[in-house]
Amino acid sequence: MKGIFPIEAFKTVRTPFYYYDTTLLRKTLQTVNNEAARYNNYHVHYAIKANANAKILGIIREAGLGADCVSGGEVKAALKAGIPASQIVFAGVAKADWEIELGLEHDIFCFNVESMPELEVINQLATACGKTAQVAFRINPNVGAHTHSNITTGLAENKFGINMEFLDEAIDLALSLSHIRLIGIHFHIGSQILDMSDFIALCNRVNDIQDSLAQRNIQVEHINLGGGLGIDYKHPNRQPVPDFETYFATIAQHLKVRPGQQVHFEPGRSIVGQCGSLISRVLYVKQGVTKQFAMLDAGFTDLIRPALYQAYHKIENLSSDEPAETYDVVGPICESTDVFGKAIDLNRVHRGDFVALRSAGAYGEIMACGYNCRELPKGYLSEDFS
Ligand code: LLP
Question: E strands within the chain?
Fold first, then answer.
């Protein structure tokens, strides 16, 4: 055992693989549930896009969370895990007809609609099957977030949501359509947000929108604020369960909720991020002219975040306590972006050592790909090794 990792048991399986600490996952779920329960109108839908591993979804379903889906595949995964359709919200900037039909067939709670053409198609398909679709408008609030530019979503220039200047028109359209019931408004400003002022800005914007809806005598039942709460990638052990208390309290303080309104959240990363690590073995230690490389059997096909977003994942040598040396930690893929970290201090590295890339439970396994004909990494729960 080094830290939380059962290294001896790791020798029985093939690397690289994802390792999920289910004690931490369950503790995180319990915390999010307890903190949300302080407010009698808060509802949490786990954003499946962060991690759709069936065993992980099973644990999330046991905790009673709903699901936020962005594709027909995710709706299927949620249903297969046993998450009730009445707790499924379905966003997605371009939903295919079959995906909409799937949602209608199962009477999902709500379609988060991202454009007027989509609204018309949902109405047509709902009419064809004799159902009324419950919809929320995903509104692009034009609120920035202090996060990487590739993962901001709430600016006017982004493709997501309905721009505020078209909101009136979209409402008129919704009210005119026979098989549409407008039940809510939905927002998501970005991901890996640690600065609460971004969420405050979102609340202020939602308050303004509610005021202008009220002038039209419209009050929706549901407000969905999306996801976005970040995690501490630099120090995975410092506060492994994100601060849901402050997050919900900030929203409660700044969002003006009208009588009877329900508030929904779609956290992904904050639920599963810290419980997962990518476990890899060192294949070679190679001396360069000015540096040395620790060459892993994991590459960006297993964890693409560093290559795609210049993301930092803490790297630990699980097999050595020898004095630290400095390495560039790289993978085996034939691309120069296949680098997990440059000038990283690790306990002296040897061929065969186990290395953990921490905080990889969200957007890790699910974003793996088969480039270079590589096998997809497997995911194991901590209890699979006991
Ligand atoms: N709701 C909506 C509508 C979203 O688009 C997202 C994430 C979430 C909820 C969940 O956000 P979270 O709580 O996980 O921040 N692959 C990127 C992150 C992309 C996030 C996309 N949308 C990464 O690895 O950082």
Answer: 17-20, 42-47, 66-69, 88-90, 110-113, 133-140, 162-163, 180-186, 222-224, 262-265, 276-287, 292-296, 315-317, 324-330, 339-347, 354-357, 378-381
Output the ligand 1 site: residues, CB below 6 A: 47, 49-50, 68, 91, 151, 153, 188, 191-192, 226-229, 266-270, 305, 309, 362-363
Quick one: pLDDT at residue 161? 87
Mean pLDDT of 144-158: 64
In angstroms, what is the span from residue 194 Cα to ligand 1's centroid? 14
Nearest CA to ligand 1 atom 1: 226
For atom 6 of ligand 1, which residue has the closest CA? Answer: 227
Q: Whose CA is nearest to atom 19 of ligand 1?
A: 151
Q: How many CA atoms lie within 13 A of 257 on its CB side?
A: 18
Ligand 1 center–CA 266 separation, angstroms: 9
**Residue 9 near residue 19 (C-beta atoms within 8 A):** no
CA angle at residue 296 from 292 to 300, to 5 degrees? 110
Q: Measured from the CA of 193, which atom of ligand 1 is nearest?
A: 15
On average, the pLDDT of the chain sits at: 95
For residue 340, give the amino acid letter: F
| Total-model pTM | 0.96
Proportion of the chain above pLDDT 90, given as a percent: 92
Q: Which atom of ligand 1 is nearest to the CA of 153?
A: 5
**Residue partners of 26: CB distance under 8 A and separation at least 6:** 59, 63
Residue pLDDT, tens place only, 167-189: 999 999 999 999 999 999 999 99
Q: Which residue has the higher pLDDT, 159 or 247?
A: 247
Instruction: Give the pLDDT score at 58.
Output: 98
Pocket residue to mutate for ligand 1, from 269, 304, 308, most atoms within 8 A of Cβ = 269
Q: Which atom of ligand 1 is nearest to the CA of 186?
A: 3
Question: Hey, what domains does the chain have and what are their CATH numbers?
Answer: 2-16+274-385 (2.40.37.10), 22-271 (3.20.20.10)
